[in-house]
Amino acid sequence: MGSRFCHRWGKVIVTALCLLAFCPFSPAQQRENDENERLFPREEEVLYGRVPNIVVRTIDGKTQRLSDWWQQRPILLTFVFAHCAGVCYPYLNSLRDAIRQVGGLGSDYEVVVLSFAPEDAPTELRLMAEALRLSRNERPCWHFGVGEPEAMERLERAVRFWHRRIKGTNQYDHPAMLAAIKDGRVIRLLVGATVMPVRLREVVRELKGEPVLAYPLPDARMPFRCFRYDPKTGTWRPDWGLLALLTPPLLTAVFVLYVFRRSGCPRETESVRRSDKI
After folding, report:
1. Cβ density class 167-198: b for 16+ within 10 Å, e for less
2. Pairing of β 110-115 and β 142-147
3. What are the pLDDT digits (tens) for 87-132?
């Protein structure tokens, strides 16, 4: 009886562990994860890395280095294309709106917007800046400019930004990203078509030296997480990894308790019977 019971429950435990191991994966999901890994820069590859101190020509007619900004206060650096028909303009709008909600512009950080396209001129970026409709207080803290192609390539490599021309068009394929730089080093990297205020608030806190207890790395290769971050609410919730971590010991505990209970009852009855006879 005991051996049949152990054999039956052994099958149940093995089946449950197999389902936990293989259900979250599929060939399509693996291909999607590989594609995301190829397309999106990874924050852990650039954290605390040095940024080239390149020369920038701004839309105000000035020529200065990136250090002229980051020596005063940290900067939020992003890359755009003046004639972009895709993500650039919506991304800058979301960055502007998130900054207005989070605050700290001009006191805790400033924004540097650089064109990655060699054909862009400062006059074209001026139109992009005007399209943002920045207020009088905001405009001095937003810096738009262009750099020499070779210098821009070094800067893009340092933060893992990339772009490539789309065949048959005058457009570029590229990610939308924001690099937080303090004292010439990358402190954070936000990747995505929209800048969420809760994520930007974390970046600003870290630039100010305030502790951030935990934040997710943008790694699509981690389907098993104990907790998953919801950027819309700024909260954490349990995920598959926690279930996979707790299920084996819980099943083992239940199994052991059941076996001991089943095996303990007959012995207790036998001892009671013997005592009664004596």
Report:
1. eeeeebebbbbbbbbbeeebbbbbbbebbbbb
2. parallel
3. 999 999 999 999 999 999 999 999 999 999 999 999 999 999 999 9
Could you read off the pLDDT of 147-170 as tens digits, one per residue? 999 999 999 999 999 999 999 999
Q: Look at the block and give the residue holding tokens 């394929």.
A: 173
d(CA 191, CA 162): 12
Phi and psi torsions of 58, nearest 5°: -90, 170
To the nearest 10°, the Cα dihedral for 92, 94, 100, 105? -40
The structure tokens listed for 9 are 């429950």
- C-alpha–C-alpha distance, residues 46 and 18, integer Å: 37
91: closest CA among 68, 75, 111, 105?
111
What is the rounded distance in angstroms from the CA atom of residue 264 to the CA atom of residue 267? 5
Cα separations (Å) of 213 from 54, 119, 216? 33, 43, 11
